């Protein structure tokens, strides 16, 4: 379609029927959040969590703008580079860099954000289009991550950016309204291939969430509000991919019989789509009001993880969703989208299990795929991965991923992950706290500081210092202008009878005013405390126990709190020049040599990996640290990470290798080929090579018995 002038836009609105009158739009409201998210910048990371953010900022994420072609030379900025006609590379990068820059309050990173935002808005077409496309090349999807970044920028920098961002989005949404009325241009009608339209439709809830942000956070005119309501409804109605239809008995594929992009249900099976789609029904419900969408949301989460979930909290999908085989991969892109969706669901619906799942994903599936310095990332991780090596001659094991997909580097596979993974940690931090009518909720437990205003109660500043999830004590230092309610989330895995809360008023040296047991709301998992005006401290102790959960093939996975533990298989590391995603062979490229930390990294085990364990012998080893808090979370102890580990009795077994590429499924009824010994288990996110789905044996003294595959190990 040809560009439209602003007058033509309003002419189009006048000629075509509107979904509702101005009076109706004034009376329409979105369903409220269970817990209202705070504006970006309200929450800062502390302790180990700040260390993870700083690694991102000084690592690959913080330098992509300087040398990665599809960011530095993006078509969005007048350059010539992108990895697809969707032009989504710079938008993905921007969506992650905005929260990273403002959460760290890093001037260098904020400078990158401001440079790109200013240039993109300067290039906005006269008819409102945002992006490099013209005419029939226009496709709505590629804009969505950039729009998400703009809304975050407007929150974090109200005085400098909210006005230009809102002005730009109003113009753009007016154009989208006309495009949708004009046969669905760029949404259901795409020039190059019909499949190009599927991305925007199956992910439309992310676009709708941008419109909802506009309705909740801006003072636009009634005409534009009416347009926005109509656009949400039209986007939803025109999409042929509705997640609530997919998550129904008889249609949802509990077993994937055709795990290829040729599957006609591919948009519902694409791993990143699934991760994003977990929140779809909850987003739609906010304007649609159908309570059936709550059931759809529960189906989405429960079925996805029951039939396709990894022990690390993400989804088996090497591009296409897979069944629960530990030799298959789970994309890093899928992990960050899954974690964000689950955090969104806790804010939207308030069910405690969503928050537990969000923590599980971010504390395990995200860090396991990043090197210590965050210069290298994996395209996909396996639950059982004693090596992460180049295996380009063994591709047949996977659906689409090459034999480079499990190494760590710049582009171990599709480059979408290079630009999308940086959103994981900063968006998690932004969702750690939320607001209610009477106070604040610590929704996702972590070391953090929040500075915000509670309506009618004034400003509240809270610092939470903790090594959670490695240790289970959290200390809150609070300053409040008036009394308010503090809600602390109690995880579903925690031991309530052994958990306590202490309130200490006044100065830090004050003695406890009270100690109480934890009393939680059954749905939200929240314990409520009435905090007085002035200064206070709260000490929250969450008791945890080692937990064993069954996995397919008679295997088990081991947890302490929300941290998955892996067999410690040791590691050796080698590196090479980085390889581009289209050329996995050879020595690598010399084009980025000025960035000497940009390399490909290959990991191999140095200890036995073919091990069966006796879960009844699991024990928690003492934490050797006595003072101070962790500087980093998911790196080894030598780099400032946790010294947390478990010990377990086990033995080596015969365990075949599948296709020469990965361990076969865990053997049932394994036979020991060595005597029993003590093995160490370490946090999965620390272990770049690991074994997290382990077969079991029963050990009695020096005798070894076959495992009872039906055992329910429970909490130990």
From TrEMBL:
The keyword Signal applies. Residues 1-22 form the signal peptide. Keywords: Signal. It comes from the Eukaryota. This is Uncharacterized protein. It comes from Cercophora newfieldiana.
